[in-house]
Write a structure and sequence with these properties.
Elements lengths: L5 E6 L9 H8 L5 H9 L3 E3 L2 E2 L12 E6 L16 E4 L3 E6 L16 H9 L23 E7 L2 H12 L4 E9 L6 E5 L2 E4 L2 E7 L9 E10 L3 E8 L6 H8 L23 H9 L5 E9 L6 E5 L4 H10 L3
């Protein structure tokens, strides 16, 4: 347990059965606001009988025992930190960067600082204050910590609203490069399926049945093949859901190389390959995913802007090694 961290234990009474988890906890602990408890739940700080619960709307059952970890309160606003940024474009309205793998976008439990937000505050100063929320100033969309690639950041409320509308209305253009296990067939196509929390593991996302989750669609095409073992695929998003590329490619049997959440069970695919290839594919430290293209209309001028970046060196090197297959 970290210093100044409390663990609260609760057993659900019969009278509480069927209620929302956040409401039950708020009633038990009026000193903690419901929004604070919601953030703790979504941040993975609440568990029931050893299983992490991340949905505030989770309906509790009689007899369940919940453990709530309450970390020491964090500063109300993130602080600026001098972290280098690879800036592709900047004006008074917005900023476009090439995010490296390993950089978390905004502060969260477990990652209180050294995030993109901390870097943006140091770079932009007070101009980001309040834009898009205190904890996520300027952030219009998010890339996972271990996904690299192009991101746009808003410097004004007007820009934030305009860019958010473009993402929500699917007019923003987004394309990713992914190294996946196997060769998708047909070599190009469209994956459609609602994405929501995996009912068997609430820390994962999954393609869920009709009436659940949120609609999502991904168009893909194979760019390069590495024998029958793996392929380089371009994925274009028609929606923007959590882990969308990773979940959709897994749903058709082609999880991403290096994916620690969705890529398990791929050892059989490397049986009989050269040792250098096996070591490289097993040892790749992240999901092999890069946001290579982002296009949108400038919020002030309406000019269409389009930014493309090359694969990072780690993915290039893995492709070079896989050419030996």
């Amino acid at each position: 347990m970290r210093d100044h961290e409390d663990i609260l234990i609760h057993r659900i009474e019969d009278s509480e059965a069927g209620q929302r988890l956040d409401r039950v906890l708020a009633a038990r602990h009026p000193v903690l606001s419901r929004s604070r408890l919601k953030a703790l739940i979504e941040g993975g700080q609440v568990g029931a009988d050893g299983v992490t619960i991340t949905e505030p709307s989770y309906r509790v059952k009689p007899g369940q025992r919940f453990a709530v970890i309450v970390p020491e309160a964090e500063p109300a606003t993130p602080e600026g930190q001098a972290i280098p940024l690879d800036i592709l474009y900047e004006d008074s309205t917005l900023l476009v960067i090439d995010k490296p793998a390993g950089l978390v976008v905004h502060p969260a439990p477990g990652n209180p600082d050294l995030t993109l937000v901390n870097a943006l505050i140091a770079h932009c100063g007070d101009s980001l204050s309040g834009i898009g929320g205190v904890k996520r100033p300027g952030i219009v969309h998010r890339l996972d910590k271990d996904t690299s690639g192009v991101m746009v950041v808003a410097k004004s409320d007007t820009a934030h609203r305009s860019l958010s509308r473009q993402f929500e209305s699917r007019t923003a253009e987004r394309a990713y490069l992914a190294l996946v296990w196997g060769i998708p067939m047909p070599p190009s196509g469209r994956i459609e399926g609602n994405i929501g929390r995996d009912p068997r593991n609430r820390q994962k996302m999954a393609v869920v049945g009709e009436g659940r989750g949120k609609p999502a669609a991904t168009r893909y095409r194979v760019l390069r093949r590495f024998g029958e073992t793996a392929s380089l695929v371009e994925c274009r998003l028609e929606s923007g859901r959590t882990h969308q590329v990773r979940v959709h490619m897994t749903s058709i049997g082609h999880p991403l190389v290096g994916d620690p959440i969705y890529g398990k069970g791929s050892r059989a695919r490397i049986k009989g390959l050269p040792a250098t290839v096996v070591d490289a594919m097993r040892g790749f430290p992240r999901q092999a995913l890069h946001a290579r293209l982002l296009g949108f209309d400038h919020p002030d001028t309406a000019e269409h802007l389009r930014f493309e970046t090359e694969m990072p060196n780690d993915m290039k090197e893995l492709c070079s090694i896989m050419e030996k297959i």
